[in-house]
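2024-03-11 09:14:02 DEBUG pipeline.ingest accepted 1 chain
2024-03-11 09:14:02 DEBUG pipeline.ingest length=217
2024-03-11 09:14:03 DEBUG pipeline.predict start
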Amino acid sequence: MVDAVLFDLDGTFADTAPDLGEALNHVRALRGFAPLPLEVIRPQASHGSRGLLNLGLGLEPGAPDYDSLRDAFLQHYAAHLCDRTRLFPGMAALIEELEERDLPWGIVTNKPHRYTVPLMEKLGYATRAACLVSGDTCNEAKPHPQPLLHAAELMGVEAKRCLYLGDDLRDMQAAQAAQMIGIIAAYGYLAAGTDLRAWPAAGSVQTPFALLRYLTL
């Protein structure tokens, strides 16, 4: 039986792509470029500022103006991090069901703490989560298992009795390394043509609420 459920944040728990996309298009506008459509941005939305700046401006760390544009991106995002962000359809019902069953749940994300906590507060779930583990909570970030193991410790649950839902390969790699049950959020930020069969996961779901069928693994 599963004793606790953990979620990735961007692309799994909440659809953050609209606000991340607005931050990217803000920076593109500073360079005089037209905005990118959300459908182009969405598959990269789990990859943070580095992935988005590479997508939108072809910039990598070390480029002459990378740091200043990254700062502009992050400042804009911090000011608008929950303007259009919403839970994925079915997530609220899933959380209610988990709480009805007295199953603790939490967030394990590579998103920095300074964005994770305010976002979860604005969504109304910060105090309902048993733990909020951010990308800078531990010495290592996913795909290293340390954040997942830390979350299990915070909840007082054995790692092997935890289920982790995420929409990125690194999520499943982290779950496998932590000996957790990894389930793919196939509704998340996946690039076209992604072969989910190659990921080290126990299964996948097309909607958050469908996760319930895995709780008796």
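2024-03-11 09:14:41 DEBUG pipeline.report The longest strand covers residues 162-166.
2024-03-11 09:14:41 DEBUG pipeline.predict end
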